[in-house]
Design brief:
heterodimer; A: alpha+beta; Butyryl-CoA Dehydrogenase, subunit A, domain 2; Butyryl-CoA Dehydrogenase, subunit A, domain 3; 3 domains; four-stranded mixed sheet; four-stranded antiparallel sheet; about 40% helix; globular; B: alpha+beta; Butyryl-Coa Dehydrogenase, subunit A, domain 1; about 15% strand
Chain lengths: ~400, ~375
């Protein structure tokens, strides 16, 4: 039996045994996980069937068509996109059995304790300490830019376990219990007025050694799995012409002829052209991926998107003239997700500033393109072989 | 959605063209030839046109061509751009050939398909698809042509000249033998040393009418649209050479005890350029694919305007970065960077400037100018 046929058979069996119309949402999701239909490329017993990943889309579509509930993936992006593949690759059988099922069903959501005030682009310089004490670790430090920390049950955490080694080698990867009394989560208010993210203060947090992921000192290598999966998650969707921010600016231009000036017209045409070319570049990347030839354009799409979003959002504020002086709402709120297109021009202008900083700054992305795509030599590194404790901070 | 990739057949064609250019058209040979009275290398053209059949790619097999299409033609242009090759490909195999295909002039297509002759379209290199039908040449009642057309590309070696002219009943397209009485060609000193321009003067030159008022404007527009869309592929090739050559240089060149290419101030400029070129590749492929479909509807016109508005500026930026990042050697005659800068800058004006194509987008994308 081919994998596709077997997967389809499993879907039929699941629906027959658990009618979505009459089954409790969580019961259905657990049954789906146990049937191996959560992520079909995962191994049997861990929510999958060891089938090709490409079969997942058909499963999702078939179940959605039958009225089945989904696991609300947008509410647990870190868990599904980053924690799960890392646990699958480096977790012990006990860890996999404990964490993956409630992660997938959304009963337990996850956050990521990586960035620190003193370790942004240079993440490997992080200073949060984990000190062993028998079969537990005691963790002290401060993490930042943590989305979902205020609702997460668990966190993936990297911390320094040996300050005497060079920075990449003294790091260990842990699963951190966010209900530990030493964990304090504070909202991090940003320039838009709201708080999408948090600061997380860790004071004497106790982590059992059983919640270590990978070997002691191997945390940087384990974290690469997490970060590579973050990059896979970005991009890959087809965008229609005038999809995204350009559509809003163009609609304003059409609807409000009284705002038009010659200078704005020239800039609008340049912006429209840029948006169309970025769209075509993304489409070309998608076609390459479909043929299994991932091109280096992937690393660059984020760079292109940030530049475009910043130009267009700045143009939109200017186009709106007096209306551009207003701002929707400065109230400190905690949004579930970024709603670029649903808010006003001032919000878009401010939020777009983050596009060239979050998930790898544009400067770091340019280094990646220059070194990995163009093969240019790296800048000389002065910190590579120096013990972390001796680095300038 | 357009196919924005290259097929294996297209990649094979690219490899064949590149091999010919590597053998016959190294930068040193282009430099040596560009100041002589014969900037075009007839041997190179023979190999490309006759042996590879590159000139007849878009000509159907029944007229002696390869019956391929404009996607393949675009791949050839990429390689010619990468070599800054001095050939009449754009003028003959793209512009003139598209006109002859539109006119159904089989007898004139055959020698082009076979690579025995080249032809030229008598319009200035700056002609764009949105301009009015040219009025510089008129046909009298006897059908002879008089008038002038300036800055015509690929005119010098053309056996046949295709002339848009106003006839007694309106716009028409004519073919004139280059040896005809009353036809004179005056070379210009052109900014782009690898694409010579010449002025055409006609004084009662005998001509054969190929198309009349019903079809001539549409045929000419289709040719200029095809030229503008495919020129984007040439510009892509120019930009790719500039980036690759600059990256190679900066890996070798040392200053301050380290490779110049290891400085972030330099690397970031190249990363940005690489990103622009990735966009140019997508836009150029999109235009070639749209033109290859044969559909001249709004989607094709828009694809051409986007590609030419974007790729014209990208090639210039790539060539300017190439000169700057080579430092002093980039300003010398000896280094070929200037050939690409001159080609890129002339190409930016060719078949509509980026500004002209952006202005066209205002109509095509419904973004009207202020009243």
């Amino acid at each position: 039996m081919s994998a596709a046929v077997e997967v389809r058979e499993r879907v039929r069996e699941l629906l027959a045994a658990h009618d979505p119309a009459t089954t409790d949402r969580l019961d259905f999701l657990r049954a789906r996980f146990d049937a191996g239909l959560a992520w079909v490329h995962f191994p049997e017993g861990l929510g999958g069937l060891g089938a090709p990943r490409s079969l997942q889309a058909a499963v999702d579509a078939e179940l959605a068509a039958a009225g089945a509930p989904d696991n609300n993936p947008r509410a647990n992006g870190i868990g599904l996109g980053m924690a799960a593949p890392t646990i699958l690759r480096y977790g012990t059988p006990e860890q996999q059995a404990r964490f993956l099922r409630p992660l997938w069903t959304g009963e337990e959501t996850w956050c990521q304790l990586f960035s620190e005030p003193g370790a942004g682009s240079d993440l490997a310089a992080l200073g949060t300490r984990a000190v062993p004490d028998g079969d537990t670790w005691t963790v002290d430090g401060q993490k930042v830019w943590t989305s979902g920390a205020h609702t997460a049950r668990w966190a993936i955490l990297i911390a320094r376990t040996d300050p005497g080694l060079p920075k990449h080698r003294g790091i260990t990867y842990f699963i951190c219990d966010m209900t530990d009394p030493g964990v304090e989560v504070r909202p991090l208010r940003q320039i838009t007025g709201e708080a999408e993210f948090n600061e997380v203060f860790l004071s004497g947090v106790r982590i059992p050694d059983a919640h270590r992921l990978g070997e002691v000192g191997e945390g940087w290598r384990v974290a690469q799995t997490t970060l590579n999966n973050e990059r896979v998650a970005i991009g890959g969707q087809r965008t229609p012409r005038e999809g995204g921010m350009i559509g809003i600016v163009a609609a304003t231009w059409r609807d409000r002829p009284e705002l038009r000036t010659h200078d704005l017209h020239q800039r609008l045409l340049r912006g429209w052209l840029q948006a169309e070319v970025v769209r075509l570049t993304g489409e070309r990347l998608r076609q390459q991926l479909a043929l299994g030839q991932p091109g280096p354009e992937g690393a660059a799409m984020k760079l292109a998107f940030a530049r475009l979003a910043q130009e267009l959002s700045g143009l939109e504020v200017e186009l709106l003239a007096e209306d551009g002086l207003g701002y929707g709402d400065w109230t400190m709120v905690r949004p579930d997700q970024v709603d670029f297109l649903g808010r006003d021009a001032g919000y878009r202008y401010l939020r777009a500033k983050g596009n060239s900083i979050e998930g790898g700054t544009s400067e770091i992305l340019r280094n990646i393109i220059a070194e990995r795509v163009l093969g240019l030599p790296a800048e000389p590194r002065t910190d590579k072989d120096v013990p972390w404790k001796d680095l300038a901070r | 959605m357009s196919d924005l990739l290259y097929s294996s057949v297209e990649e094979d064609l690219r490899a064949a063209v590149r091999a010919v250019l590597t053998d016959h058209c190294p930068p040193s040979a282009v430099l040596a030839r560009c100041e002589t009275p014969a900037p075009y290398d007839p041997r190179l053209w023979r190999t490309l046109a006759r042996e590879l059949g590159a000139a007849g790619l878009q000509i159907p097999e029944e007229h002696g061509g390869a019956g391929a299409g404009l996607r393949e033609t675009a791949v050839v242009l990429e390689e010619l751009g990468r070599a800054a090759a001095p050939t009449p490909y754009l003028g003959s195999a793209v512009l003139a050939t598209t006109v002859l295909l539109g006119c159904g002039a089989a007898d004139l297509l055959a020698p082009l398909a076979a690579g025995e002759q080249s032809a030229a379209l008598a319009v200035p290199l700056t002609a764009d698809p949105w301009a009015d039908f040219p009025a510089g040449v008129r046909a009298d009642a006897a059908g002879t042509l008089s008038g002038t057309v300036t800055s015509v590309p690929d005119l010098a070696g053309a056996a046949t000249v295709l002339v848009p002219a106003l006839g007694q009943d309106g716009p028409a397209l004519y073919a004139v033998e280059s040896t005809a009485a009353g036809l004179a060609r005056t070379p210009r000193t052109s900014l782009d040393l690898t694409r010579p321009l010449a002025d055409l003067t006609l004084h009662g030159a005998p001509a054969r009418r190929l198309a009349g008022p019903d079809t001539a404007p549409g045929i000419l527009r289709r040719a200029l649209l095809t030229g503008a869309g495919l020129l984007a592929s040439e510009q892509l090739g120019v930009a790719e050479w500039c980036l690759a050559t600059t990256v190679d240089h900066l890996k070798q060149r040392h200053q301050f005890g380290r490779p110049v290419g290891s400085f972030q101030a330099v690397k970031h400029r190249l990363a940005d350029l690489w990103l622009d070129i990735a966009g140019a590749r997508a836009a150029a492929r999109n235009a070639a694919d749209a033109l290859a479909s044969g559909d001249d509807g709004p989607e094709t016109v828009l694809a051409v305007a986007v590609a030419q508005a974007y790729c014209g500026d990208t090639a210039v930026r790539a060539a300017e970065e190439c000169v700057q990042l080579h430092g002093g050697i980039g300003m010398t005659w000896e280094h070929p960077a200037h050939l690409y800068l001159k080609r890129a800058k002339a190409d930016q004006l060719a078949l509509g400037t980026p500004g002209r194509h952006r202005a066209a987008l205002a109509g095509l994308a419904d973004l009207p100018a202020p009243a």
